[in-house]
Fold these 2 entries.
Entry 1:
Amino acid sequence: MGRGAIIAAALLLLGAGPARAAEPDAALAAVLEDPAADAAARGRAVAEAAARTDAGFGDSRVAVRMILHDGRGRTSERALRLLTLEGTGEDGAGDRTLIVFDEPRSERGTALLTWTLPGDDDQWLYLPALKRVKRIAARNRSGPFVGSEFAYEDLTEEQVDAFEWRHEGVEGCSLGECHRVERIPVEPWSGYSRQVAWYDREALRLVRVEYFDRKGDLLKVLEATEWERSPEGYWRARRMDMRNELTGRRTELLWEPHAFGTGLDADDFTPEALERVR
């Protein structure tokens, strides 16, 4: 399952992750049509159905251009690669993702590895200037990732059990009609009090997320646009925009087409492998 690291998902990502061209989901329809189902059950059903749309891709590679906007009209750019290995589901193991920076030269070789695990995720950051791998503690994952508007926690896989869910209805969105779903992080270290997510009704693509800070104020808005369908049947957003509502800063992600089934394996996604990344 590969929905969460948006760079990962909501890069994967990160929370704005991929979706296969969906056939009607019988389990979701049954819950939505059940008059006894409450808002919590409906919200969780949407999240579970969205996760099912992305099973079976195996692994993927994609090049991404990151553009940082400082709110005063100035920009800077970075080039990176995102590699993903789909989780086996055994013992709750989820996806493994690796983000590697190629440009600018000062950040070349910087890499972030994320393992999705039941109950908590593991993250490691490799800084080539220091030639060492640093584990990112859970309490520090609300901090910004390399100066962008994405936090470290935004780069972990979207796990259904990581949130409490509530369906807030169906409303118009950039892809026609969307399920509006509130999700509240269950982890005490999260920098967010709650999030509001929009999943389109056609393919359960995550097209928009609003992030509220610990005080309950709107902090950031993520929008995913320019969707394309791959030959394998997966939808991908070619553009993502994370906007900070308090500072005016924003981070754009411009995605090249994904390559699937490229032969990646678990040995490519270990802390020891980070120092060999080129």
Entry 2:
Amino acid sequence: MIKITPIDAEQTLRIRQQVLWPAYSQDFCRVAEDQSGQHFGAWLDGQLIMVASLFIQQDSIRLRKFACLPAFQGRGYGSAMLKHLLHLQQATSLKCFWFDARCSAIDFYQGLGFSVDSAVFEKHGVEYVKMSRQLQR
């Protein structure tokens, strides 16, 4: 099974670039708020296979740059990571967990209880929707 640990922003860049934006540089995959975010990595047999970054915004938390190496997709690791991240938020006063999801991943996120909250929009030629889930106390 995977082991999920905090990591630093720099450790996220290789996987972000390889999975989300392979035609762009690692610098393109940085988020302006990276230094204030919480970053997590999923490890399998000592190899970093997945990354996710969280950013607090008022009374909500935003997931950004959630990426799993292609060879490890479809095995339940992404679901395990999201469940872990949601569990971490239960002890906070935050009310909502949200993100911009690629349209190709809507079914995956809906299976974990997230709802589509916007019309389709585009970023760098990729279609997205906003998705969210209320945090339970």
